[in-house]
Structures
1.
Amino acid sequence: MLARIKQFLGIGAKPKEVPKEEVEKVAEEKAKPRIGYVHLSGCTGDIMSLSENYDILAELLTNMVDIVYGQTLADVWEMPEMDLVLVEGSVCLQDEHSVKELKEAREKAGLVVAFGSCAATGCFTRYSRGGQQARPDHESFVPIADLVKVDCAIPGCPPSPEIIAKTVVAVINGDMDYLQPMIDLAGYTEACGCDLQYKVVNQALCIGCGTCAMACQTRALTMTDGRPELTSARCVKCGICYVQCPRSWWPADRIKQDLGL
Amino acid sequence: MVLGTYKEVVTARSTDKEIQKIAQDGGIVSALFCYALEEKLIDGAVVAGPGKDFWKPEPMVAQTADEILAAAGTKYTFSPNVLMLKKAVRQYGLEKVGTVAIPCQTMGIRKMQSYPFGVRFLADKIALVTGIFCMENFPFASLQTFISEKMGVSPELVEKMDIGKGKFWVHTADDVLSIPLKETHGYEQSGCKVCLDYVAELADVSTGSVGSPDGWSTVFTRTDAGETVFKAAVEAGVIETKPVDTGKFGLEILTKLATQKKEKAMKEIDRRKSMGLPVPYKASSEKEDPLANV
Ligand SMILES: Cc1cc2nc3c(=O)[nH]c(=O)nc-3n(C[C@H](O)[C@H](O)[C@H](O)COP(=O)(O)OP(=O)(O)OC[C@H]3O[C@@H](n4cnc5c(N)ncnc54)[C@H](O)[C@@H]3O)c2cc1C
Ligand code: SF4
Ligand code: SF4
Ligand code: SF4
């Protein structure tokens, strides 16, 4: 996995803090990475969030990458070979087109990224039980990792513009250390607010900091007696509370680097 | 380095008599926030404000000096301050937020800033994280046990609580009571037992009582932002400083306590890992510096 990402980035060892001019130079010299966007069952929030990065996006889209596939993004029908594909949305098992597109994306892309919580964890599509117009048979929506191998995940409902920008910068700089948690998160496909109880409180790890309740976008979490309390009817199973909890995983070195400590 | 990376360490206190009177130690947290508010370096600060029950704090967004002062003093139970940061920005519309944070809260904040997966437009609005030292924290019921049962005081009479010199202290209007710290053992929250940070290593500025005389605080400036605010507050005369005691009652005791906390936590981390329990930190065999907060 690591080797494949490195190959994609065209690096052997990880370079340190590359200055901007140099990045641009390398980007000019190297063939531009070919990126695809596959939109399955999601609300388009993820790509909206991406497009909020106006300041870096122009440079990115014009000079650093080639968007070679994607509804509304590229005028192509046949899926080409891609270095990286971002997949938004979960996959509906009854929808043969979605299943086929996802499988094809896996075959044609070097790296598959589950972009946003629907692709990564299923998110609110986990609640689907079918029986709705126009396709009452569309019942089962699962994270894409249930069907294909996923290389890295960027959860969020939607992922913040900032995490997208940081990820892009890390990819361009070949900063593997920054991407490692996202590689690890590819395996986190069954998410729920109750993870806080199972994986933090039950494991004698919770310290009542309130980060989970701060991070929850649906206000499904409150803090009661210093512990998170879940209103499950509000939970969309995005997994963000657990992902942001300081007791789930701890990126100490990156934090120190970011703070200059 | 058990005291974390820092630029400078000093002994300091607020020069404001009112703050001196109500603050836990040197009033550094309150003085810094009041100064930063006044100078518009922040437009609000998250603090542990009074809650419905005596000594059970509720995080609150303070936007005036009076509100900062109403939250002064240490409460030895949970105040999930990190939760309020988003409200400070979304509901109160703040652009530059300060917050007081015990070390583990600092960790939640810093992780969010480095990896803001699901948190939008907040990371860069955190302008000042004032960290406070922390050995452990207690569920509210544990506090009730100490105060009501072990000391026989009713909570509404308590004016101040403190931990120091091996004891848990309670001040009332006309009495000072204490129990030895070993009587509090077993009442801490379990999550603290794997905590590797005593002195808020990731804050902009961190402060605590240990290492300085009564009524004064020990202060570390850590980040550039922290150094700038603290120096400005000293220059403006709202905080006075003196050199920190490097001897037995100064940095020596602080270093000793930090080391003890980390060594104990490492033992517990290794023990839990050997049982197959999850811990987000590395086992001692996996890291270069066994006492680093990684
Ligand atoms: C649980 C706990 C354990 C501590 N353990 C130690 C220790 O072992 N050694 C040591 O030297 N110092 C310790 N401290 C710090 C110390 O008690 C003082 O809070 C610190 O020195 C700041 O004092 P001050 O006079 O500068 O602050 P003040 O001006 O009195 O302000 C204190 C600030 O802390 C906030 N606060 C109070 N309680 C909490 C809480 N539970 N969570 C988050 N914020 C809170 C208040 O809202 C206020 O803004 C601990 C603090 C806490 C909360
Ligand atoms: S984020 Fe903090 S309060 Fe929430 S589960 Fe994790 S440790 Fe507990
Ligand atoms: S509690 Fe909130 S953050 Fe956690 S999974 Fe549910 S919706 Fe997402
Ligand atoms: S000991 Fe650590 S985990 Fe416990 S309250 Fe203090 S900072 Fe938080």
2.
Amino acid sequence: MVTLIAKRFGFMVFTMIVVSLILFILLETDLTGDPAIRVLGQFSNEEQRELWREKHGYNQPMLLRYVKWLGNFATGDLGESIRFKGPVADVMLPRLWNTAILGFWTFAIMIPLSLTLGVLSGMKEGSKLDRSISVFGILTTSVPEFASAVIFSALFVFTLKWLPGTSSMSGGFEFKQLILPALVLIVYDFGYVARMTRASMAEVMTSQYIRTAILKGLPYKSVIVKHALRNALIAPFTVIMLQINWLLSGVIVVEFFFAYKGFGALILEASLNNDIALLEACAMVAVCVAVTTQTLADIGYTFLNPRIRFS
Amino acid sequence: MNTDQEPILVCKDLCISYYTRAGEIPAVVDFSLTVLPGETIGIVGESGCGKSTVAMAIMQHMGANGGIKSGSITFKGRDLTQLSDDELRNIRGSEVAMIYQEPFASLNPSLKISTQLMEVPLAHEDISTEEARKRALQMLGDVKLPDPERIMEAYPHQLSGGQQQRVVIAMGLLSNPSLLLLDEPTTALDVTVEAGIVKLVADISKKYGTSQIYISHNLGLILETCDRVFVMYSGEVVEEGTINSLFTWPRHPYTHGLFACIPLPTADKHAAPLKPIRGQLPLPFERPQGCYYHPRCDHFKEGLCDVDHFKMEHVVDSAPDHRVRCLRYKEIDIRLQTGEGEKKEALELGERVLNVDKMKKYYEVRDNSLKALISGKRIRYVKANEELNFTAHEGETVAIVGESGCGKSTFAKVLMGLEKGTEGEVRHLGKDISDIAVRDRSPKEIASLQMVFQNPFDTLNPSHSIGGQISRVIKKFGVESDKAKIFNRVMKLLDIVKLPRDFYFRKPRQLSGGQKQRIGIARAFAGNPSMVIADEPVSALDVSVAAAVTELLMDIQREHKTTLLFISHDLSVVRYLSDRIVVMYLGHILERGTTEQIFAPPYQPYTEALLSAVPIADPEVTKREIVLEGNLPSAMKPPKGCPFCTRCHRRIGEICDNEPPPEQVVTDRHVIKCHISLEELKQVEHVIHVPDEAERLHARQSQ
Ligand SMILES: Nc1ncnc2c1ncn2[C@@H]1O[C@H](COP(=O)(O)OP(=O)(O)OP(=O)(O)O)[C@@H](O)[C@H]1O
Ligand code: SF4
Ligand code: SF4
Ligand SMILES: [Mg+2]
């Protein structure tokens, strides 16, 4: 177990370094175009560009620049955002926080809901409940986020007038504004996780050890809770961990639609405006989260699965 | 057992069906059975005849699509079919318990053994956790598991197959049930482990007075465990009776057919060839008119057997509970026919084809644990084959026997060039092939050394026709190149393996298991091989199919003078068909010699135990009982001295643990590896005692 964690951790660091190297080569060298042009624009003249290069240390040897760049990153100096005219950290952190809030509420509702329904429908495969949950799950997952965003807005904002149509939180945090984006995300992701859980549960329910448990004369509740759930939840656990990535950077559409100031929207803005420092920082954060959740998923999987844990 | 006791269980006129999209499948029609207190009942029959269905019906666990159509199952006076879920729950696990075929699959992989054991009494009785724990510990001791405390804290995957099955048995016994159902409890286990479990099961019924229903396809096992036996065919009982009456004089042609399919360790291929039952078990919805067995019966009489379906009747002049379902049983005396099949000539031995000299095969494994990282011993070796020495001649059948993990298949892989030998030589037709991989062998070399695999299902390409697959092999081996000639060759091969010629156009999924195995054999013989390795070729097949495939393999071998290397764990089959036997244990050859030499003293102690573990379906044959304790050691950490020292019943002391035993030559080509002197080993009695004709007659008359 310790070896496993150490190994996964080592792998994590390695991945991050590789990604940083790729980022550096793509954005900070001449390989994909002169960074000075990228920052100063097509119509800058050579003199301006040279001044800029000198000022930002672009004339130093490549390797030295990379090490410096990495060192700055590691110590929290993420550079200046051109677009927002300020330190990148100051721009990014509140955005991350917003995304975390949105993600938290989405998860807090979506996970219990989809696990419960998934387990219920997997318990009695082919039952009415199972079929209705499956159909509902497929339906919600197959409607893209922007479509459901439009539909929900039409319903709750324009017809019923219960909720505000934008979630920019310009007057401070307001829970009401969070509801619609969260709802769209929940509806979209629910079907996926629920169907995953259902498949896993259904498989467990047909396994021989469940038959053993039933034929031991255990109460049905204990067959489900003690014998089935733990094995059935291994697969969904991994899936859920991977959903965190999606919530971080995969929900640009929803954030954009509701003008929610989240991390996804920030990436969009940064790339539209050639804000290289900001883009680099966002990319590094996204990769960091991706690798971390993957690691947690692996470790959790091992932990839930004694067969791997003790071999 | 006495007959005036109240029966524990009575099944009366049971009809059980499965309901599928394609319609109703009447899996069991008209099944009746009574079980008395303390009695062990056996149910035998081919795969698909409805044995498990009956067991599941008794447990009242038929799945979503199964149901009892008519009849009753009365357990201690209560009709199980009428009980509510709660009442059933109270009976399951406490009054009736079940043991399953695959112990690993039936234990929950993510719960500790202690949890899985303790919950049984906790669910059924009003006792404390400590009490339940104490009971579980006690029971683990009772099923002869060493170190119960450690087992309690283990997860299922940390135990061996035999240990897992003992745990499942302990689980079944924890609430002291009055009826135990065992559905093929040893099929997934090794022979010596099986022998231990069988003995345990017998002890249990004595100690606790538990009645048992023992389901198996192995008549030998039924003989060893049961008091009465029910032979099932196509969803109904065709013969029932006490072990004694049924085994000494089976009256139903099907029962007799089953006996003729299994090799007895007392018979060999030249004297009494196996006689497979022709045809197949009919599907439940395609049962023929009249007697269900009539299309396969040698005593079928038109106008009598194919008219009406009929009931079981009592066998005149036999024990009162011997009953049979056959209209002509009185006219046919099956006993007269035993051992009468055509005799087959033994083959002259030819030149030496295979010479294995000090062959070793070590697998490297990387140890990734922290401990190994620190100590620097990252690479360890699994010693799969340790100094193998033996030879095989043209036309000879050499069997390699041993339990799972002893290195049989590794050796086959080295021969086939799928793995490279670590040291030593394997000379085939004079050429060392131990380190030539398959792709470096010429088509001719590949063709002359072929293999038949255990699992016919995995080795055929599902999307190509049978004919196409065999043609490809013929082309690849360069036997023929002309299209018409290839086609003729395929036809001839199909004839050889006794399949209809129009199988040329079939796809693998349209074949049964036995037919697929025949195709596997046809493919192996496509290039006139000088040697064929058969790795457990029949162990995945049903008895009568296995008999047919075994016979076929031997006929072809005889005809082509092929050397056959037969890998198996089943000593009866091995005894039956091989000329020479190599006994392996943990990568070592412990004994090798001719079949007669292996089956007679002096025995290497492991051979002795192995022989004792073979179930024999002949009540007149007696065996000396040797039950091995303990498990097979891991191949990563083999004992320093004799590989068998951890389980040996004849261990003589420290020397066995510390020094590898010497090879002792008894006679030419009969070699025993053991520290005990040959003189002493020669004193040992025969393990299997077969009465001669005079003794048999005597026994019958005094009955
Ligand atoms: N769930 C099911 N649905 C439909 N048919 C089934 C089902 N289970 C079993 N059958 C059919 O019922 C018949 C009896 O099956 P059963 O499993 O009782 O045989 P068995 O004697 O236990 O065989 P084996 O020796 O292979 O275990 C077979 O024809 C089988 O195909
Ligand atoms: S009734 Fe006829 S067909 Fe059936 S087993 Fe008896 S002899 Fe054979
Ligand atoms: S050497 Fe010792 S342990 Fe090995 S088989 Fe002989 S007596 Fe048994
Ligand atoms: Mg079965």
3.
Amino acid sequence: MSVLVYTENWDGQFKKLSFELISYASEVAKSYNTNVVALSIGNVDEAELSKLSQYGADKVLNLSNAAYTEFNAEYYAKAISEAAKSEHAQVTIFANNITTRAIAPRVTIKLDAGMVSGCVAAPESIEPFVVSKKAFSGKAFARVKINKDNKVLSLNQNAFGIKENVKAANIVSFECALETSKAKVVEVSKNSGKMSVLDAEILVSGGRGLKKPENFKLLEEASDILGSVATVACTKPVADLEWRPHSEHVGQTGKVVAPNLYIAVGISGAIQHLAGITSSKVIVAINTDKDAPIFEASDYGVVGDALEVMPKLNEALKAFKANS
Amino acid sequence: MKILVCISHVPDTTAKIAFVDNNKSYNKEGQQFIIGPNEELALTRAIDIKEAKGGNITALTVGSAEVEPTLRKALAMGADDAIRVNMDPKDAFNVSKQIAEVAKANQYDVILTGREAIDYNGGQVGEMIAEWLIYPSVSGVNDMDLEPGKAILKREIDGGYEKIECDFPLIITGQKGIAAEPKIPAMRGIMMARKKPLIVVEPVQSDNATEVLEHSLPASKASCKMVSADDMNELVRLLHEEAKVI
Ligand SMILES: Cc1cc2nc3c(=O)[nH]c(=O)nc-3n(C[C@H](O)[C@H](O)[C@H](O)COP(=O)(O)OP(=O)(O)OC[C@H]3O[C@@H](n4cnc5c(N)ncnc54)[C@H](O)[C@@H]3O)c2cc1C
Ligand SMILES: Cc1cc2nc3c(=O)[nH]c(=O)nc-3n(C[C@H](O)[C@H](O)[C@H](O)COP(=O)(O)OP(=O)(O)OC[C@H]3O[C@@H](n4cnc5c(N)ncnc54)[C@H](O)[C@@H]3O)c2cc1C
């Protein structure tokens, strides 16, 4: 028996999310009194793989076959379900993100399992197996029971946290025969170096209240001062107006984010926008309208014109950074 | 081109959520139900392609009779016919199995779903159908073109996008960008929708892999602490010393 975790890598590196998944799997494995097995697919070196054992992985399966360097939902799902079978995994754990959303449901069917996506905590019991998830786009939680022997879970980022739990690294190479897929990637375009809104710890986000695209410079400046953990995000109308790229659009129809700090500038706080930000640890709102709904969802509020407040905030942040 | 669009019947995005029956069920009383926004965009794009290049679009919902107005709306937008699988949808495993059975009987070239349903946010049904049918799939598609025999798609990836080509048949899960705005049915469309076929089929035997025991609402935030617009040093101090996020 075991608990299997698929730990995705980004150009050969794991992210904090990968370590959070291992921490979560360790908690699940404790209830079963069993081991945590991590599966890595792609080119990841030994030093990076061994990091997984610092958070509780008892064994790391390494599938580094060149054919797997490019993502393909069918191949990845096959490899993961083969690993789950050979390791007799009772529970298979994924992150809840765009890549794994293409694979975890396939793995679920292959294993004749029950799947709960968007888990926000460790299972409250394993017999029966009950776990809580977000539902109604963040407006509610649901306690869900899985009726199948095999379980597949996907965890929301930042829902569990990282816990150190050092184990001896046991890295084993893993093989899985390939089938051919009809879905072919014909072109990839990456504007590298830019942090995704999903990974940022701080988001400085702007709405239509900023009036024109040039004014987003004020938010970029704040993000620059806050450093490499920060980046700029926006509301749907801002992306629709092409003031900002669609990749920055946050909300029900955009990205669902969970940063430590979300600064909402000139954003009214429509329910569809809130659906994407309610998992943020702390929310700050800056808005001219003291009755804007965003304040109800916020921890700190400033009533004022963004074009006047942001330069002052940037000065204050600069002074703070200079002294820390 | 034979296209199937899978439609979830979900509460309006602005709906206030409440629960009944010891928090086991969602309170439908007085709620407006809509076509899930992700698949509404996918349907819109499919209709545009069909109008330019020809083909047939079937809209499908797994649900009880109450979902029929939602399917009629899909017909009014421009789908040619509709199928309702007569079952209370409670679980993605079961819903996907039902859809896969319909697909096996009708042999579609392209099966479209949304990225996720906005009620249970599973993001599971599309890829599960793909696995039941052993079809290739492309998920989270923001741009779609269909040519005879093949789909040309774009999807966002970390820090960029990838372009994918795939021969029919396949599953596509769509999201924002696949069409700019959802199509609004015209009066003529609404009139025609009444005459378009809506077939009801009985579900095949399958089980629910999961079951919702109880719902709850998130704890409401403690009140918002207001800071004067002239004192940004104070805001920075609070974020550092009190909230400890910078
Ligand atoms: C199906 C559906 C899905 C949707 N999905 C999303 C989604 O994913 N994400 C999303 O964001 N929206 C989404 N929306 C749109 C949503 O309903 C709102 O229209 C949108 O979030 C509003 O964006 P906004 O806050 O930028 O603009 P507005 O609502 O126009 O708000 C602008 C705010 O700026 C303030 N303001 C004006 N001037 C200033 C100033 N000088 N300084 C400071 N503040 C100022 C105003 O008081 C106001 O509160 C969706 C809508 C639908 C129907
Ligand atoms: C009143 C009511 C109560 C419900 N209660 C529950 C419940 O307690 N638990 C539960 O899991 N579900 C419930 N559902 C069903 C839910 O709406 C979904 O149909 C189903 O459960 C899949 O949810 P998901 O979040 O995994 O979908 P996702 O996997 O997120 O859906 C992805 C896509 O699949 C397609 N799709 C999803 N559902 C359907 C469908 N029924 N018919 C056709 N296409 C579909 C859509 O294109 C959608 O965008 C209820 C529905 C209604 C109307």
4.
Amino acid sequence: MGCVKEIAGALIAGDADEVKKFVKAAVEDEVDPQTILDQGLIAGMDVIGAKFKASEIYVPEVLVSARAMHSGMELLEPLLAKTGVRARGTVVIGTVKGDLHDIGKNLVCMMLKGAGWKVVDIGVDQPAESFVETAQKEDADVIGMSALLTTTMVNMKQVVELATIKDCNAKIMIGGAPLTQSFADEIGAQGYAPDAATAVEVANGLL
Amino acid sequence: MIKVDTKYYNSPFFAILSEDQLYRIHSASLEILERTGMDVHNKEALEILGDAGAYIEGKRIKIKPAMVEKALASAPSKIVITGRNGNGKVLLERNVVNYGLGTDVPKQIDPYTHEVRLTVLKDIENIGKVVRTCDNVDFNSYAGLASDVEPELQDLYHFKACNTYCDKPYFTTAANGANMKALIDISAMFAGGYEKLRSTPSLIVYQEPVSPLVLGKESAEVLLTCSEYGIPIVFPPMVQMCATGPATLAGALAQGSAETLFCLVLHQLKNPGSPFIWGPYVSQMDMKTTISTYGGPVLMKSQAALGQLSRFYNIPTFGFACCTDSSDIDVQCGVEMFWSAFVNALSGLNLCHDIGYMNSGLIFSLESILLSDEIIGAVKFFMEGIEVNDDTLALDLIDRVGPSGNYLAEEHTLQYFKREGWYPKYMNKKTYEVWVRENKRSVKEKLEVRVHEILEEEAPSLISKEEKKEIDAIIKERQKAVLEAV
Ligand code: B12
């Protein structure tokens, strides 16, 4: 069990080699893969997420830890698949129709991946159909939408409506500079986050 | 006697890069254009570039240095924009700095309740009212996004609202080629025809490629339409270091410069000699908060470099002045606004826009226009330098007044005190006791009071009933076309 704590520590330090070493050791010790994932990798990334949110660390440092997490995941994934353990959740994410801004969305993707989510990024300028169809195909827990323009944020509503029509039960989470919690409430989106750090918390909360 | 070998400066001067550093950045841009190229999502643009000999690999277009040099040679080094009624002028040429507003801010600080809320059309009318009173603001723009009109036609409604009380040169974006054409139609109506509009344009258009290295469909339409009609256009990519460009300023400048040059090439191919304003936005993405910074030293370094690069290219350049990342009229706002206006002037940027932008371009306020006006006034004053001649050296006067005398009642004082001194409208110059007695009024409070005065003053509409009718007819026509398209 000792190794699990060390996995989190190495991950917080952003040391991919150490993370791999400890994950390997834990697997050899026959620690339950779910425990390695939850109490090692994800616990470590949760610390990183909290530090980022508190402005204690910078984006590139978060990404270094996320990379370390992925190197641990590579070892763990075959075992997780065997035992039927899934990622924390699956999110389908994109920028809405008419909008080409993607940096914010990309950052949210990286943070979610880092936090143990399976992320399906459908890109920019995406119509409602592609959000909903992809979500159904991927059996997604969450649909994430980004919009940076007041002219395109209105397109989010169509996704919410189409999801209802198509019986897609993924929760909807939105973000982007001009958006607000009240806009999310208005269109019936269950989650809104003003930045990437909060996006992870909100997504986790939707599960 | 003659004084020889003297050199007098009319203004201070400043440089951040050496000639060789500039050349390396230019040369790097050429390499990006030839080696990496840009993706182009517009058919007409692809055809024009292909016909001119660009390398075509599907959507990816690569450009030879000779094409860039040809475009640089045909682009004008001087552009004059005059307000639609002949009032106000923006002169874009080497060593002339103009300041004005930016576009598209989603939220406004309400001038009465001070709550941050969505922008409405009335706010945009009020912006024109305030800008009209600002002597140091050379051009006007709508600086907001009216949430109470159809999004597809916002730019047209903005034109009407923003120009109602102000007829300074107008800076605008356009959503697509058709809206651009409608804006040109409206401006041509004021000018008395398309030829007149072309010879004395009253508007400047703003559109953007997508960093890194993509030219989108709609923005290419606007670029080509402006080129065709001879309407001045600025086409800056938004290079955010660490995100849409390298983390290093040199690389980010080279990329932004390459993207702008690419668009210049296309623009000049469509209609050689058409007016183009050069200059990417290159700034830092804050790696703690992920905002795209509009205030602070990184943007200022890039602005300084861009001023030099534009002189090297001899094409007018875009600047960012009086912007802040702060969400309030506070100390940070003052610091960031002041020194951006100052660095823009020192760097000789020509079209310095976005004055009054707060919260990295997401919040606007009427107070921030007035504060910018005051700041630009101070910068102007500084940039006038020091006049050194017999009269200003005042040796006879100094001799006459002599030890223990004073200069208060001297004719020389009366003659010069205003010109050689600076008198702000809002900054506090009162003694402490007087300031306390007058209720410790802050700069912010004074700005608010002035905004209320301006809003409550009667202001004549500068668009006649007949002109309004014509604008409405053009908007209606676009409305119909938009409806038919869906
Ligand atoms: C960079 C930029 C561009 C680049 C984008 C390049 C790219 N690859 O993305 C380019 C040059 C292409 C561009 C184009 C335009 N832009 Co622009 N752009 C910006 C700018 C300067 C920064 C945006 C950015 O990347 N910020 C950094 C990222 C990290 O922040 P973010 O996107 O807000 O994301 C964070 C949060 O919002 C949240 N989040 C974001 N998405 C999601 C999704 C989910 C699910 C969740 C939970 C959270 C979340 O988390 C993110 C990370 O913390 C903003 C100004 C600003 N201050 O926002 C203007 C801005 C957004 N643009 C604006 C405009 C008007 C345009 C144009 C119309 C301009 C024009 N006339 O050409 C075009 C439109 C093109 C189009 N069809 O989309 C306006 C928008 C006004 C409005 N609300 O309608 C702004 C506000 C600037 C302004 N004041 O004028 N732009």
